[in-house]
Design brief:
single chain, 476 residues, alpha/beta, Rossmann fold, Nucleotidyltransferase, domain 5, eight-stranded mixed beta sheet, seven-stranded mixed beta sheet, 21 strands, 41% helix, globular
Length: 476
Amino acid sequence: MHSHFVEDGSGRYPAPPWLLDGVRAALRGYQREWLALGQQGDIAHRGARQLGKDHTWAFEPALDVATRRGQQWSVLSASFSHSKDFLADASKHLDYLELLHRQNGVAFPKRTSDTVSQIVLDNGSAIKAYAATPKNAQGRRGNIVLNEIGIMPRAALIYETADAVVQGQRSRGLTARYRIIGNASVYGSFFQKFWEGRLSRSFIKITTTWEEAMTRWLRDDLGHPLEKVTAWVEMNVKRLIGRLGVPAFGQWYRCEWRAPAGGFFPPELLDAVQYDPDLERIPTDFPALSSAQVRQGIGWDPARRRHPAGLAQSLEGLPRRSGERRRFIWRPQRLIKVPWHLQLDRIEALKAERNTVKITVDRQGIGDMPAEEATRRWGEGLVEGYAFSTSSRVRLFNSLLHGMQLDVVAIPVHTDLRMELESVQQSYTKEGREGVVIPETESEGGEDTHGDLAVAAALADWGLTHPGGAFFGGWV
């Protein structure tokens, strides 16, 4: 960050030492290197999970708008939820930078607008967040960030639109920085083709694996001996591979492009059925439907032992334009350290939103108590306790898979749900019977998970397609 310049009323000059010290305190060494490379040109960053990519790349626009007049940044993320999170990181960085300026007796620009979608300062600078759509990419000004491009719906068209905006500004003699950020995706995806093709030739390409970043942070920033760092990293690599399997670990933590085939839910199928629940109008106008036009199934995977609980809705309506009924997995949520009887209160709130035809509860793990209490509250006609066995697990996930294959089930852009669905593996017993294995994963927040979101989503969709009465005998 030594090349960063700031401005005041008298002109433009190198950043003062106290500001550079503040940057060093806020970011890890490898993160500062990313931003230093960003001073040299356009950036394409393929990075592992849990390295602080959003945290770091949000620091750049925050520092820029705080120290230079008239800077415009547009952040387009895989969903509006992702964009809001990115902007929230930028807002925290601005709070930190303001504190640094005040401590050193330097004036700081005031915020004239501070919402979930934009931060505007009185020096004429702004950061604005959008869901990544071709329409939202049109007409932007200044610098553009395409975030989470590996899971971005219609990524190729969005890139083309954003690139035209950037190049158009440059042709008029204006400065426009360009950042493309994401996890590795599958072979044949836009991000993979972009990365390995001619489109990325003008970009500075950064690849950051989890092992490399953790080694550098623990050794260089925290000063731990290399042999201890190496042992810790190797231990955690084995742990992650044991949970995810080699293909998923390679994709999400070693930045390797993943073969399209493999897994119960093929990655290319998940790409095809993604939608953004935060858009005002998704392609089928689904949010525009009244609650009376929508049927809802709720899936609940109660917490067990150290694992979080999963809760999801599957909504079915008659979209206005296509005239074809579709089902949408809607806002899956992970409940961490929430007692199961309080989880019931969450379900009560969801139930009240729409016409609920079934609440399907996973009976595995902590047993029948949650399902029995749900039945006591809402009756046997509404609640189904789903008992897992080898065949019933296959039947449950096959139902969700077939809905996706027929393009009647859509899933939200949701990194943790996506990762859990990709981790579901097909297996076979010695007798040749088909099975499903759900390995443990680790969420963006670092919690141990065991397919809680994937199970909740499958249970929610099952309730819509199998709305019969409750049963507790299990399947064989």
